[in-house]
Design brief:
Structural class of chain B: mainly alpha
Radius of gyration of chain B: 18 Å
Largest sheet of chain A: none
Distance between the termini of chain B: 28 Å
Structural class of chain A: mainly alpha
Helix content of chain A: over 70%
Shape of chain B: elongated
Shape of chain A: elongated
Strand content of chain A: under 5%
Number of helices of chain B: 5
Distance between the termini of chain A: 38 Å
Oligomer: heterodimer
Number of strands of chain B: 0
Helix content of chain B: over 70%
Number of strands of chain A: 0
Largest sheet of chain B: none
Chain lengths: 30, 170
Amino acid sequence: MGNPLESLPKTIVIGILLTIVMVSLINYIY
Amino acid sequence: MDFFEPTYLSFFSRWLHVMSGVMWIGLLWYFNFVQIPSMSKIPDNEKPAISKVIAPAALFWFRWAALATIITGLTTAHLNGYLYDALALGILETGSQKSTVIGIGMWLGIIMAYNVWMIIWPNQKIALGIVNANPDDKPAAGRKAMLFSRTNTALSIPMLYAMVSAQNLY
């Protein structure tokens, strides 16, 4: 399996998933 | 209006920050959404137009816009009085949820600017033949620059969410 960052759509999905994790963590902490 | 009052200076710094950021992330997205996917569709004899002319010019504005964005961003945070709280991700006694959110955005931006200056630019100089290097090293340098450019594209999504939400939600 190749590096997902070689694919632009997968890169965008990773970015969106990171955003969801970030927002969830902030909501969990506060 | 007093142009030297703190409110105006803070606004002015943020205006410079947004303009620098638009240029930086705009060029980052140009590389990732337009240039990189288009290279395989360009005939070999026309590729130098990209690699010798357009890419070096775009990389010039890209890396200096990245630096300008960091400098104006830190200045904006300082003028608004939340620089240390944000860099500490809101864990100081004076911190708040807003400090945590803007701090995450700031650290993502700092990591991205580090990638630009310390990884993407040095490797692009090798890949594009801007510096003398072993021709065998060019493909690996180009791939490394591309992967870190993609990393920055992924990080730009939560970074912009943090930046905009810190100002509008908290």
